[in-house]
Amino acid sequence: MRCTIVRRERFTATHRYWLEECSPEENLVRFGPTTRVHGHDYTLFVTMAGAVDGYGMVLNLSDVKHHIRRLVTKPLDYQLLNEVWPEFQRTLPTTEWMAIAMFNRLAPHLPVSQVRLYEHDALWAEYSGEAMNAYLTISTHFAAAHRLALDTLSLDENTEIYGLCARVNGHGHNYGLEVTVTGEVDPRTGMLVDLVALQQAIDTHVIQPFDHTFLNKDLPYFAQVVPTAENIALYIAQLLKEPIQVLGAHLHKIKLIESPNNAAEVIVP
After folding, report:
1. Which one from 120, 171, 212, 242 is the annotated catalytic residue?
2. Catalytic residue among 141, 165, 184, 265
3. 109: exposed, middle or buried (C-beta count within 10 Å: 0-12, 13-18, 19+)?
4. 165 is catalytic
5. Is 157 a catalytic residue?
């Protein structure tokens, strides 16, 4: 029987987005303030899979730690990424391209099944060895109120189904929203999608119309659809699928976090 293990490592590094073949004005239009050298405290998760041996381990964790630090985190720690690895000289060190480069450097030494790299807690990338195809996730939030009830049922009947969530004056949540997109990483820019444009699409189609609303009354869609976490996630997926496609990426997943105890995910085919 196979088992999966995960090792976490951290490092700090700086980078900038700058294409030598473009003028300063063109770079500024394309990359904005990220043309300046800036830094991040990166968190790296390396997932490995294999059979459990007679010692009860997939791999010796001391060996795993040694390989990751020797091959990845030690060479990159407190460095200007653009100048460290050849991979980052021909392709900009975006989060998604860094995940691919790390996977490829580790794969000959460890049975890596996935690399997940956090630039910060609201942006991370995943790579699982699928050629140039990677995943990028933006985490954001909005506040909204809702009431869970069907108009065709009495208050007692709705309470039996939805509990306290059926109370007539509704209640609110600070919703967490994770939007994961997938696509091929551009071999020069290191991007699978324009990050600024992606954030704008999410803000325009979801955050602005949803934030600080009573979903049942302020969004026509939920006048007829009960705004459960599942239905909200499905609706957000409907709203974002086409705008993200226009940007040249594919919407892969919506995760809506209603509370620390409840969340709903929608995988988009």
Report:
1. 212
2. 165
3. middle
4. yes
5. no
Query: What string of pLDDT tens digits covers the 269 residues of the chain?
Result: 789 999 999 999 999 999 999 999 999 999 999 999 999 999 999 999 999 998 899 899 999 999 999 999 999 999 999 999 999 999 999 999 999 999 999 999 999 999 999 999 999 999 999 999 999 999 999 999 999 999 999 999 999 999 999 999 999 999 999 999 999 999 999 999 999 999 999 999 999 999 999 999 999 999 999 999 999 999 999 999 999 999 999 999 999 999 999 999 999 99
Asked if 3 is an active-site residue, the reply is no
pTM: predicted TM-score of the whole model, two decimal places: 0.94
